[in-house]
Amino acid sequence: MMEIEINEGGIQVEDTLYPYETIKSFWIDQNRENHKLLVHLDRSFMPIITINKVGSIGIIKDIIPHQLQPEAWSAIKNFHMSKDTAVKAKGHSAVYDPPSISPYGLMFVEMPSNLYWLYPGLTKVYVVDAEGETHTDLTRATGGDYIADADIGWNGGVLGNIPILNNGLDTPQMWNPVNVTQRLQALSNWPASTTAKSIRVFKQFLVAMDLTEGGTRYPYIIRVSDVADPGAVPGSWDYSDPSNLSIRRPLQEGEDFIVDGLPLRDTFIIYKEHSVWGMTFIGGQSIWRTFPIFRNFGIMTRGCFAQLPKGSHLVATDSYDLRVHNGQVDESILTSKLQKWLEGQMDPTYYQRSYIVTNELENEAYFCFVTTGNTIPNKAIVWNWKDNSLGIQDLDDFAFGAYGFVAGGSASTIDELTQE
Q1: Pick from 169, 124, 125, 172: which is nearest to 151 by CA?
Q2: Which of 37, 40, 62, 138 satisfies CB 3.0 to 4.6 Å to 51 for a cystine?
Q3: 83 pLDDT band (50/70/90 cuts)?
Q4: For residue 340, what is the enclosing H or E element?
């Protein structure tokens, strides 16, 4: 088996580099049932190299390149694997440009009469309607500018058509009613002198995690609101009141901090630094049941997860892995060598700025991270959950990503790409 590498200098065949000026052409033949990579060299002893099904396996870093199957890649960048072929990755194009502030979060809000994109910065929050006609400042009218931190970012969700925004340092905000003339305001009935690093929506409840109460941080505490009426926010967070469904509960086993959480069917999955827990509603005196699910991994940082079709989560873990689970069984996506590559690529100072975003149309999930020497996510590992294939793509410094409708949006292909 012959080892071949395509890089910026040309095509490396075993120990010999053939510069691009000595190559007649190379291409991926997608007109046949089995897609092929063909390299036409200006050499009589090796006129054409053909590799079938070039996208069927993707990238593998655990095996010495010359021992790989012909369809496998030892390294790849700015190509995606799909349907047995390698496809030039799409790049990006500007939409709603220019934004009024530098976004450090995104939330797509779908209402019966309109579609919106909320984009919070470090001090202000703006909204643009999906048609892109108007950018409007929604920054709270009272309380002054926000004091968000780029390492914490923004989180929240939409509860009964009411967007909830949270940055871990300010009082959580709500946009109610949803109208561009309505400024954000403090979440009604939120406990006084309290902040939470993460707030998520679960059914008709809000779940707050990693709390600071009265100036003291409680990283093991989770609080759940009372049930919200339709079209309203929760009326209480008073866990001492037996008439409502609120709780305040420590998850201190293992002494790893609570980081974030995400619904999975009828279970709210609580991600800690080195373990994963579940929470379900049971009623009665306990109201909520909390229980450990996985003890072999935790989450890397807030937002490093995504809901996938057919009831599963993709998670970037504390050990530089990507794992997929259904609440009962988990599976690693990355090989050990690719995990080591990721650890070597990531900037240890800005790992908290990583996130996962999905592209449901392409069956892809992007784990976006900051490489050494940068401050904003500039590279992504791309996993196709349908084909179970991996790729690596450059990003143009995307602080955050979200999936939703964009009017008139289109993406060009990456002009400068490297495939190895």
Answers
A1: 169
A2: 37
A3: low
A4: helix 336-345
* Sign, CA torsion 298/304/308/311: positive
DSSP state of 211: E
- Residue-wise pLDDT for 276-319, tens only, equals 999 999 999 999 999 999 999 999 999 999 999 889 999 999 99
Mean pLDDT of 182-202: 98
What is the maximal distance between C-alpha atoms in the chain? 85
The per-type count for the chain, helices as H runs and strands as E runs, is 1, 34
- Which helix (H) or strand (E) segment holds residue 343: the answer is helix 336-345
- Model pLDDT, residue 19: 78
Q: What share of the chain is helix, strand, coil (3-state, %, to 5)?
A: 5, 45, 50
Q: How far apart are CA 222 and CA 206, in angstroms?
A: 11
DSSP state of 285: T
Give one DSSP letter per residue of 110-134, joined into a string. E-SS-EEEEEE-SS-EEEEETT---
Burial, 244: exposed, middle or buried (Cβ in 10 Å; 0-12, 13-18, 19+)?
middle
Structure tokens at 206: 């809000």
What SS3 state is found at 65? helix
The pair of structure tokens assigned to 350 is 């800005």
Beta strand ranges found along 151-240 (DSSP E): 155-159, 162-166, 173-174, 185-186, 194-202, 205-213, 216-224
How many CB atoms sit inside 10 A of residue 389's CB? 23
pLDDT digits (tens, 9 = 90+) for 69-80: 666 666 656 665
Instruction: Spell out a b/e string for 327-347, using b for 16 or more CB atoms within 10 Å of the CB, else e.
Output: beebebbbbeebbebbeeebb
The pLDDT assigned to 412 comes to: 44
Closest CA to 164 of 238, 204, 241, 107: 107
First to last CA, the chain: 17
267 - beta bridge partners?
264
